[in-house]
Amino acid sequence: MKKSLFTYRVLFLGGLIFLASESVCAQKSVGAHNIEKNNNVPIYFPLDKNDFVKMSSAYGYRKHPIHKKKMLHKGIDLVAMKGKPVYATATGVVQKAGYKKDYGNYVLISHLGGIKTLYGHLWVRMIKKGDRVSQGQLIGFVGDTGLVTGPHLHYEIWLRNKKVDPLLVWKNLLKEERKEVAINE
Ligand SMILES: [Zn+2]
User: Fold this and answer.
1) Beta partners for 54?
2) How does strand 115-125 pair with strand 132-133?
3) Distance 72 CA to ligand 1 centre (A)
4) How many angstroms is it from 24 CA to the middle of ligand 1?
5) If you measure from the C-alpha of residue 31 to the centroid of ligand 1, how many angstroms do you get, rounded to a whole number?
6) What are the tens digits of pLDDT across the range 29-70?
7) Most buried by CB count within 10 Å: which residue of 72, 133, 135, 157?
8) Could you give the CA distance from residue 105 to residue 95 in angstroms, rounded to a whole number?
């Protein structure tokens, strides 16, 4: 029972990521109007759909791969090969861009409405503190800096300085989008 629930959860999460990356493709093909509508909310997927391999770690408690202790993982780990581009998921201003022992090379972007996004373990950073960035703009490349066992992007969404589950944010944003579509029809 426990195992099947777990499998369901992994499938569910995988489906959400698929939906989120599909949404990016839809945004790209529909054109600028649709991107503008959502440019201040982090609905954008931070990697190219074809570069994204899998989610290796979800938000929540897990046994830390290096510390070997049960710790709260406050973001999601998106696996891609080292050197693949990382994009800003919403328009905003770079609040921090630096190096930390755990995050490695990281970027923290501040968006409207008390929303922030963080991108960790970058190989190279392409932006600096104070830069304005647009949704979908290249901000760096996937790497393995900081505390990692392999190259991936550690991605966080902060709501009023609380780190929340990015998959739940995507789920809610996609739901809102569908509601809007229904109203437009
Ligand atoms: Zn992580």
Assistant:
1) 79
2) unpaired
3) 10
4) 22
5) 32
6) 444 444 455 688 998 999 999 999 999 999 999 888 888 889
7) 157
8) 14
In this predicted structure, the answer to whether residue 114 has a pLDDT above a threshold of 50 is yes
Please report the DSSP string for 42-54 in residue order: --S-SB-TTT--E
From the CA of 182, how far away is ligand 1's center (Å)?
Answer: 36
CATH code for the domain of 110: 2.70.70.10
Neighbours of 169 (CB within 10 A): 19
pLDDT tens-place string over residues 121-143: 999 999 999 999 999 999 999 99
How many domains, the chain? 1
**Could you tell me the maximum CA-CA distance found in the chain, to the nearest angstrom?**
52
| Angstrom distance (rounded) from CA 69 to CA 67 | 5
Give the HSE-up count for residue 22: Cα atoms under 13 Å, Cβ half-sphere: 8
Contact 117, 155 (CB under 8 A): yes
CB 95 within 8 A of CB 118: no
147 CA from centroid of ligand 1 (Å):
9
Angle subtended at Cα 116 by Cα 43 and Cα 25, rounded to the nearest 5 degrees: 20
Structural domain including 22 reads 2-184
Q: Which of 69, 155, 152 minimizes the C-alpha distance to 107? A: 155
User: What's the pTM?
Assistant: 0.81
